[in-house]
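User: Predict the complex with flavin-adenine dinucleotide.
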Amino acid sequence: MKHLAQGIITRRTELSESYFLLELECQEIAREALPGQFIMLECKGETFLKRPMGLSSADPEKGVISFIYHVTGKGTRSLHSQLIGETIEVIGPLGNSFWKEKNARTIGLVAGGTGIGPLLMFGNWALKNSPETEIIGFIGAKNAKMICGEKEMKRFAKEVYCATNDGSFGYKGFVTDLLTEFLSKNSLESIIACGPTQMMKKTAEIASERNLQCQVSLEEHMACGFGACIGCIAEIKGQGYSMICAKGPVFDASEVVWKESNL
Ligand SMILES: Cc1cc2nc3c(=O)[nH]c(=O)nc-3n(C[C@H](O)[C@H](O)[C@H](O)COP(=O)(O)OP(=O)(O)OC[C@H]3O[C@@H](n4cnc5c(N)ncnc54)[C@H](O)[C@@H]3O)c2cc1C
Ligand code: FES
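Assistant: Here is the predicted structure with flavin-adenine dinucleotide placed in the model:
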């Protein structure tokens, strides 16, 4: 069930260059949120629309949720200027969640940018609820300073590999090239990808070529976040156009019709 709630900012932690983890006290959402779900968050300042943010944790006992943001534009700049103790309006939890394939013992998590957030929540969920699951993490970034969430992922993953476009840390190249190289010598039973659309599209191709189950968390500009404005569509095979916020954001990658834009 979604709630319109007031979240109190309790902590901001810098994870890497312009990537921050924000913790909010918000009992209603913390009690119910699942990995893969998101919130719509008031950013104040000049922004009228709330911004969707994928949850990176939800602690029902402490009543605290968190998400990772990257300072990109108006909304995130304004969010970044808000102080500890300030209250912001939040709607959530929204959307569907990642699912664990029954027979998947080894799962690859492929993250780009703030896509790391929902994958951290999934990994911590798996550690608690499915401890036999082996997680292998893949994190991509432009350069070493922008690698986000490696330390946090190492808390639950058996191995974590990083790729940077300029080779300043880990593998030189795209995280999807690193995934291809890994799969030439090792196996995975399932993949979950969250990050830029091109990264998820390529991950979907890699999975399809190897017959691996793959989930992706799609992103589109969102105005409402719960199916009221029809502003966030994606074409899904056999279903026509679906609203990402209501039917997703998590989809089976093999069902997504990948395009430059759906609008
Ligand atoms: C389901 C979902 C989960 C998300 N989770 C997170 C998260 O955990 N952390 C996070 O930082 N961001 C997340 N986003 C993106 C976020 O909602 C904002 O769009 C983004 O932070 C930029 O907002 P802004 O107001 O700072 O930038 P704006 O001033 O709105 O835009 C700055 C630039 O970024 C582009 N842009 C804005 N939104 C998107 C988008 N969704 N996709 C591609 N380009 C875009 C604009 O076209 C513009 O060029 C998520 C989006 C979705 C749909
Ligand atoms: S954001 Fe309004 S329908 Fe998806």
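DSSP finds seven helices and 15 strands in the chain.
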